[in-house]
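Lab notebook, bench 4. Still working through the backlog of constructs that have no structural model yet. Next entry is a single chain of 388 residues. Request: give me the structure tokens for it.
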Amino acid sequence: MRPFFFAGFLLLAAAAHPAHAVLRTAPEMQPAAAVAVPIVSRKVAAPGAVRLPEPLPGEVASGAAGRSRAQIGFARGVQALRTASEVSTHLAWAPSGADRQAAALAISSPGASALRVALKIGSLPRGTRFIFAGASGAAVQVEAADIEATVARNLYYGEDSPAAHLYWSPVLEGDTAIVEVDMPAGASAGELHVAIPLVSHLVTSAAHGFAAACAPAACDDEAGPTDGAAVARIVFTEDGVTYACNGMLVADRDPETVIPFFLTSRHCIATQSAASTAQPYWPHEGSACGSVAALDPGSEGATLLHADGTADLTLLRLQHAPPAGAAYAGWMVGAALRPVAASLGQCAAASGTSARFEAAYNAGLYQWLGGMPQDASDEETSAGGAGS
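Model written out:
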């Protein structure tokens, strides 16, 4: 059995710092490439089927939650799969290729536009991988090591709630989620201890409606020409409830690095367990300006670097690089900061965005972006770094 581990991550943190250690990513520690890891999933002959009942009217609670945090999905318990032993009764193993075996589950929630599936991992045979697929879109393969590292990251940052022990799948379009487990042929099914206690039932597609919410701010006349391509939607799940917020990529000061720092609001994401579920949706063909009919989903996962309650801003480092066409917004201080802040207007509160960003920057963002705190009256332009 494979124990939990966190390969490579602890190398980024100073041992003297607890929950929010300063993480300065060196050039050799670049993120993984953008993974729309589309694969050709093998069709398991008879996946175990679990169909949830029709949602009750009270469950379908969509709309604004908190400040500008749009709720797009609600939690549903999966009673038939709440323990590892119950999951095992639904898995029928069959050969899936050279020296591999696989089994699958089909979980349906009537009326869902999309689903996310929560996995609670006890132990996994070495070499296990999961393949997630919906009714449409490419299947996505996730290695067991990545799932274990996600949970370990939550625990490392001091979280020990039930949410911290869950791994949430990518968003899967449609009302049925396929979860395929693929492991070496010599592994024993008895070594697999995985429960699926929750799904998040999305009432709207995360990939639509971005232009109306974001493009006017992203295409502000005073914004830089690439700022629109720096803005993205981010979808995340807390206790089975899924939300959507906007945010943007920001460049650091090191010309040798292109690190996917992502700025959003603290009222959106304030914990590592929420950041671990974050899945960005990028403007199609790299531009949020004009009429955008849909967004392209990216790969989930982020590290929470800094959360400033006064400025209501959160800085994340995405686990995976954005797709080609995405831009990194340059950043400035003082009055010249407004072009960057304007692109964030739909996620941060509308008033005083520039002042709050500057306050957050001086409170600690510069530790990651590689600058120095500057006086609010300083209007000198700071270089935007690679990609800006």
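Notes after review: Helices lie at 84-89, 144-156, 210-218, 272-276, 338-342, 353-369. The mean pLDDT is 73. Flag for follow-up if needed.
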